[in-house]
Amino acid sequence: MALSKTIEHQLNHRTYRELVDEPLDPQIIHELLEVARQTATSTGKQQASIIRVTDPELKKEIAKVSNQEYVGRSPELWIFIVDIARNAQIAEEHGMSVDKAINTSRFFAGYADAVLMVQNVYNAVESLGLGGVILASILNDVDRIIELLQLPKYTYPALGLSFGKPNQNPQLKPRMDMKFRVFENSYKTIDKISEALADYDEVMTQYYDLRDANRRVDSFTQQVLTSFEEDSSKRQRNLEIAKAQGFNFDVE
Amino acid sequence: MALSKTIEHQLNHRTYRELVDEPLDPQIIHELLEVARQTATSTGKQQASIIRVTDPELKKEIAKVSNQEYVGRSPELWIFIVDIARNAQIAEEHGMSVDKAINTSRFFAGYADAVLMVQNVYNAVESLGLGGVILASILNDVDRIIELLQLPKYTYPALGLSFGKPNQNPQLKPRMDMKFRVFENSYKTIDKISEALADYDEVMTQYYDLRDANRRVDSFTQQVLTSFEEDSSKRQRNLEIAKAQGFNFDVE
């Protein structure tokens, strides 16, 4: 029995990719946007925004970037963006030049604002018995996302969130024990981590991933090894793309 | 009346800097760590970790970096870090060389994992009638945080979270209307944003910020202008520091 209803939902968190093809009540959308509004924001600057994608053709184009077909069928697809453009415009309307000031600090302030907002909305979604999936896969081709959503200078996409009424019933995905991830006062490297994770690896191979036609998945250790073998270079240019969007990462 | 108890808490989100100087029930800590454990994580890789700071002297040193005295008195101070070190170690134990693979994509995957975890834990905290404050101020001197927490190669601090039983009663901080922050299908620049925000500016000047001896605060527009006048260059080196921690941002 969890200590709160919120925590009960959090401990039951699952990823739902398959969602019922029907619109959500506008009152729900309104309230989720109010949750987004009240999310903690660095120094109150509110440097994140949301693009709500309702155009079916646009969803399909984003699905291509994500390389996830189900994104094109998402009942609610929200793209959370770092948005310094609004505050930059305020400064420019007051005659200030802000070019150099849209810097590393602001980029990460906006990035944190956007990601905090994703999780806050996601918790609200789950509290209503709905579900969804966070999409980092939009970062596979940031140039294309910028083009599709017409993102101006001083903005940058952080994450997407697809949500709605679940249309599948996935198992709770096993996670490693927090003793491997929480340290007191200073970081502790765990000796022979691969061996230490043997029990977790065993549990993971018992888990059925609905994505893969109900087949069992690789151990965690094997998943990690495979991921290092894969080429993840397609996102390697993303800081360069952020620079092209006007973010100043230069060190003098 | 909110649509869920979770949302009711979220709509009442406030920042609590002053917390009662007493330890939280160990059961609460345990459950918050389980919430952290179940947080959504990019491709299941669990590339974020937590340093729980319990040493009073260490808290004071972190407070100096944050330049926020109350951080040194925090009953619970957690630093959430990007942690690719664990998975890199797994690969190295299997004879793989991962240097170049700890790249931009992995950095942002870990960064998102860490920030999602902050908000998820924060929502759990608030659901228990507790409160706290997210600390981006630890990023003022990342080198020092790395030294203090002995953060190894392939790790990087993302955000801190101070929480406990609130010892103050702040007003709900006004936020701009979401019509300025939510766009359908494509980004829309709002003409004359400074004028459009006049009503919000008026509301903001009615708000009392407990931090400033109960004086009223500047309008939002004025806060933005002031922030652009201030020097935020101390965080400008942070991507360089991440590079020094082993993250490969090079574009070939």
Descriptive account of the structure:
The structure is a homodimer of 252-residue chains. The model of chain A has no long low-confidence stretch (mean pLDDT 95). With 252 residues, chain A is of the alpha+beta class. Helices cover 40% and strands 13% of the residues of chain A. Chain A is globular. The first copy, chain A, has 10 helices and 5 strands, in the order ααβαβααβαββαααα. Chain A starts with a helix and ends in an 8-residue tail after the last helix.
Please give a quick description of this structure.
2 copies of one chain form a homodimer. Chain A is of the alpha+beta class and 252 residues long.
Features:
homodimer; 252 residues; alpha+beta; four-stranded antiparallel sheet; 5 strands; 13% strand; globular
Strand content of chain A: 5-15%
* Rg on CA atoms of chain A, Å: 20 Å
Q: What is the assembly state of the chains in this entry?
A: homodimer
The helical percent of chain A reads 25-40%
Average pLDDT of chain A = 95
Task: List SSEs of chain A in N-to-C order.
Answer: HHEHEHHEHEEHHHH
Q: What are the low-pLDDT stretches of chain A, counting only 5+ consecutive residues below 50?
A: none
Strand line-up in the sheet with most strands of chain A = 1-2-4-3
For the terminal residues of chain A, how far apart are their CA atoms?
A: 54 Å
Most strands sheet of chain A: 4 strands, antiparallel
Ordered list of secondary-structure elements with their pairings:
The structure is a homodimer of 252-residue chains.
Chain A: H1 5-11, H2 26-38, E1 48-53, H3 56-66, E2 76-83, H4 85-93, H5 104-127, E3 131-135, H6 142-148, E4 155-164, E5 182-184, H7 193-196, H8 198-205, H9 220-229, H10 238-244
